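Objective 1b. Sequence-to-structure analysis of Spermidine synthase.
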Amino acid sequence: MRGKILFVVGLGVGYVLGTRAGREKYEQIKSAASKLWNDPRVQKRVDDAQDFVKDKAPEVAEFLADGAKKVVSKASGSSTKAPAKSSGSRSTASKSTSAKSSTAK
């Protein structure tokens, strides 16, 4: 259902932006969109969605905070090993580059 609504809205926006029918057509579409948005059934769904988000926001925030803490702990635990590997590969790359440049001369 959500996909259908988004598709219809996209068609409307595309028509408004791309049409050459003039101001009259634009006003008709704008009026229809306004009527749809102000429909009590639509506003009921909007209110339900807002209430749902308000109820779930603390849970989502806690979940994200826990996930971030896990990522930070993993990253800080493996950060001592990572630079040693990358610095070794840098020196190898530097040696091969200097060897190529000395050969080229």
